[in-house]
Amino acid sequence: MSVVDNVVERHPLQRMASPSRQASFVLHLLGILSFSLSFKFLVDNPNPANESYGWHFQYLTIIGLALAYMTFVVGVLADITSSRSLFLVKNALLFCSAPLETLISILYWSLRIIDKRLVLPEWGEMDPVADIGFHAIPSLLLATDMLFFSPPWTLGTLPAMGISVVIAFAYWFWIEACYQQNGWYPYPIFELATTSQRITLFLGSAALMTLSASLLSFVYHRVNGSGLERPGNIKPKRT
């Protein structure tokens, strides 16, 4: 098999064998469609957040959704062009977006089961289909991408923890800036918590995000095995 034929069958930065590029393209296209419909829902169903400082990007859910959108847009471009650089960018974005969306799904559904008023304001109720689109589908699609269409992750626990802490506290500073302008927090649980409790909440979220990254990596190796090449060293097979 020639090098060209090998790349057509499976891009060297994709895990799954033929027809990985076609299946990857379909997955990324479905994700873009789902995420677009979720953003359309925000525009078609306005609430106080639409007119507030920070718009809906006050919500970690929407930040995660935007990052997932970026990941899949780059992914579909990589599928079309078979660009090694674009696949590397997609995989780098995926390392952040997959654990973040896993964290969002875990936190949202756990708190909603305890008391939905912790995560949804009085005007924040939405239909079940939209709810799943915001809080379940992104994590499922990103996990599928990671497990079947990406090379093994090589970032260790400490770097993953560092990224998680940076994201958690960057989000905290952001919502505090929004609070100064709007006079209310995006999630009711923040209204109920003291400053020290919010710090504890963000630290706990960072730890949970690190755990999510480790869990996704563990599942990857359980599904695909270990001993795979590092993404930076993967080369097309020679004949």
From TrEMBL:
Signal sequence interval, chain numbering: none
Record carries keyword Ribosomal protein: no
Membrane-spanning intervals of the chain: 25-43, 55-80, 92-109, 155-175, 199-220
A GO cellular component entry from the record: endomembrane system
Chief localisation class: membrane
Pfam families: Far-17a_AIG1
Keywords assigned by UniProt, alphabetized: Membrane, Transmembrane, Transmembrane helix
Membrane disposition: Multi-pass membrane protein
Keyword field contains Membrane: yes
Subcellular location(s) per record: Endomembrane system
InterPro entries for this protein: ADTRP_AIG1
Protein name from the UniProt record: Integral membrane protein
Organism: Gomphillus americanus
